[in-house]
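User: tokens in, sequence out, please.
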């Protein structure tokens, strides 16, 4: 992940003293304060709501150390205490933090060799785009041989954005549109507020033709849940749309085990 936080959310060394400084030489990295905090967050995320005692047993530490860890996480607004102090849960703020995080393009590296094979077999270009947080679509994988003479495609048209939005879950789409609203032009902001854009995204089939039918862009969602768009484009001149449909079918089969979703229904692009 990158650019998850605008500033460090947690300063361990200043807020979490070591229980027994005489035992430092025997302490592994996982038992150090930072390691305990990470394991505590993982336990609360996967087992929460969790009691202090269950967390203490899970971490294998004393009650005092458990209390210090929970206090540190609560002060940093990573966790909340509910039901009169009985249970510990993650703070809902983390939903927004992790939901808007940018993942490494490692999520899509398995696509690159499949893209290269399909592109070569059918004589097309395949370009994979995803969104930067609060920014435009960016190219993360391509079958093009990029040089000074041949630059990365910078298409940021409405169809490309719509196709990426079409790969989003309802929760992802709600957060994404909220962020778009902050910087949108008045006409776009009105379309977001009235739900027009949301309806357009929900009604799309998971793929969009360009106006001149010279490219086909398909919604995909990566294994880690990142929404993206895969564009099928000609190498040198306009290609017969029938070839794009053949590539669509082939990619649907070959990417079945590599992505969560490819398009949104099984109908061929007409």
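Assistant: Sequence out:
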């Amino acid at each position: 992940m990158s650019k998850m936080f605008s500033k460090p959310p947690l300063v361990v060394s200043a807020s979490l003293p070591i229980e027994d400084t005489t035992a430092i030489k025997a302490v592994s990295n996982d038992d150090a304060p930072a390691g305990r905090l990470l394991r505590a967050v993982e336990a609360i995320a996967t087992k929460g709501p969790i009691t202090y005692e269950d967390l203490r047993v899970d971490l294998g530490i004393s009650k005092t150390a458990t209390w210090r860890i929970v206090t540190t996480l609560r002060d940093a607004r990573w966790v909340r205490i509910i039901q009169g102090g009985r249970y510990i849960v993650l703070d809902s703020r983390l939903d927004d933090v992790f939901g808007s995080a940018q993942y490494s393009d490692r999520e899509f590296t398995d696509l690159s060799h499949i893209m290269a094979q399909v592109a070569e077999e059918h004589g097309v270009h395949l370009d994979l785009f995803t969104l930067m947080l609060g920014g435009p679509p960016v190219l993360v994988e391509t079958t093009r041989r990029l040089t000074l003479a041949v630059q990365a495609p910078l298409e940021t048209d409405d169809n490309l954005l719509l196709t990426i939005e079409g790969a989003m879950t309802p929760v992802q789409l709600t957060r994404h549109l909220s962020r778009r609203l902050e910087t949108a032009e008045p006409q776009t902001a009105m379309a977001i507020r009235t739900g027009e854009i949301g309806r357009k995204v929900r009604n799309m089939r998971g793929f969009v033709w360009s106006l001149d039918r010279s490219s086909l862009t398909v919604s995909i969602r990566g294994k880690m849940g990142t929404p993206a768009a895969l564009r099928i484009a000609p190498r040198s001149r306009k290609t017969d749309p029938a070839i794009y449909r053949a590539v669509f079918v082939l990619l649907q089969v070959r990417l079945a085990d590599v992505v969560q979703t490819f398009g949104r229904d099984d109908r061929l692009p007409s």
